[in-house]
Amino acid sequence: QGKQKKARKYAVMKRMISLRDERLKEKDRAKASVKKKEDPSAIKEREVPQHPSCLFFQYNTQLGPPYHILVDTNFINFSIKAKLDLVQSMMDCLYAKCIPCITDCVMGEIEKLGQKYRVALRIAKDPRFERLPCMHKGTYADDCLVQRVTQHKCYIVATVDKELKRRIRKIPGVPIMYISRHR
């Protein structure tokens, strides 16, 4: 026997108290907002973020071999699942020498994951990986990576995290490397 289907009620709305209801006190009543007219002759100001001069038509001139690749925690974990050698697959992808970089925050995040991710920790401690020290408080790796990439446009970010990729796509001139279909 299956689950009993409930008929959906149409045109049902949550009931709201009107502003003229006597149960409302005077201070709770919403005041009618008065729109002030905009002066058509006034100069309209908009704050537009200034892009660095190293970007020419959104192309980053600071990027070049040997590529420095900021590696995220989940990128290491996915490379283990896909049975990829991290440095070798990066070089196969970019056809150039790659220097994987790992920040203290990412290292701390891997250490916090515990015994289950000890292989990822061993990969992260590989001497081919360059360690980048962090000077900020906290160990939230995503904020750390976004902040570092915003300051220095010389990195490629390697991540599988959708939220982090969405945040980095908003920063012009920063390429993203990710794992899909086991490569």
From TrEMBL:
Keyword Magnesium among record annotations: no
InterPro entries tied to this protein: Fcf1/UTP23, Fcf1_PIN, PIN-like_dom_sf, PIN_dom
Main location: nucleus
GO terms of biological process kind: ribosomal small subunit biogenesis; rRNA processing
Cited SUPFAM superfamilies: PIN domain-like (SSF88723)
Cellular location(s): Nucleus, Nucleolus
Keywords from the UniProt entry: Nucleus, Ribosome biogenesis, rRNA processing
CDD domains associated with the record: PIN_Fcf1-like
GO cellular component, one term: small-subunit processome
Domain PIN: 67-166
Gene3D superfamilies: 5'-nuclease
Region (Disordered): 24-45
Job of this protein: Part of the small subunit (SSU) processome, first precursor of the small eukaryotic ribosomal subunit. During the assembly of the SSU processome in the nucleolus, many ribosome biogenesis factors, an RNA chaperone and ribosomal proteins associate with the nascent pre-rRNA and work in concert to generate RNA folding, modifications, rearrangements and cleavage as well as targeted degradation of pre-ribosomal RNA by the RNA exosome.
Oligomer and partners: Part of the small subunit (SSU) processome, composed of more than 70 proteins and the RNA chaperone small nucleolar RNA (snoRNA) U3.
PANTHER family the UniProt entry points to: RRNA-PROCESSING PROTEIN UTP23 HOMOLOG
Family: Belongs to the UTP23/FCF1 family. FCF1 subfamily.
Identification of the protein by name: rRNA-processing protein FCF1 homolog
